[in-house]
Amino acid sequence: MYELGKRMCSAALVVLLCMGVIACGAKQDPMEKIRDLDFTVIAEDKLPEELLDMIEEKKASNFKMTFQDQGFVYICVGYGEQETGGYSIAVNELYETSNAVYIDTNLIGPGVEEKGKSSPSYPYVVVKMEYIEKPVVFD
After folding, report:
1. Beta bridge partner(s), residue 57
2. Which residues in the chain land under pLDDT 70?
3. Residue 118: its pLDDT value, please?
4. Which residues pair with 79 in a beta bridge?
């Protein structure tokens, strides 16, 4: 009788542990990607005037900011003053998680032909997407 009770207790413990592991696995990771987001890279001449003024004030230093206008959010990433022109910026990812919108960008250096030029540049990128009621996290 003692042996049967011991086995039942062990079996119940195994079931409870399995249920705990399954329940923990069912929780969604807040960093887990739900979906990639559609966006458009916006040229400087298409930016709202207020946003363009804000970028002008900040462009000499690295900056990361958002701007909302008419149901859209503009996500801006600037890389500050660079010694030459010819830089470009890649948007590696823009996606939504359960608690935020994540953007990952990368500054790409100038080609060989641009390296000898001495005029500074202020590379930045602005992406436009439909407004989502979540904070933006810059990676």
Report:
1. none
2. 1-28, 114-117
3. 73
4. 62
Q: In sequence order, which residues have a C-beta less than 8 Å from that of residue 64 and are 6 or more positions away?
A: 76, 77, 78, 138
Q: What is the predicted pLDDT for the residue at 27?
A: 62
pLDDT of residue 59: 97
Buried (b) or exposed (e) across 32-42, using 16+ Cβ within 10 A?
Answer: eeeeebebeeb
Interstrand relation of 62-69 and 72-79 (parallel, antiparallel or unpaired)? antiparallel
Q: Please tell me the chain's helix, strand, coil percentages from 3-state DSSP, rounded to the nearest 5.
A: 30, 35, 35
Q: Is 60 helix (H, G, I), strand (E, B) or coil?
A: coil
- Cα 135 to Cα 44: distance, rounded to the nearest angstrom: 24
| pTM of the model as a whole | 0.77
**Concatenated DSSP letters of 67-121:** EEETTEEEEEEEE--BSSS--EEEEEEEEE-SS-EEEEEEEEPPPGGGTT----B
Q: Quote the pLDDT of residue 31.
A: 78
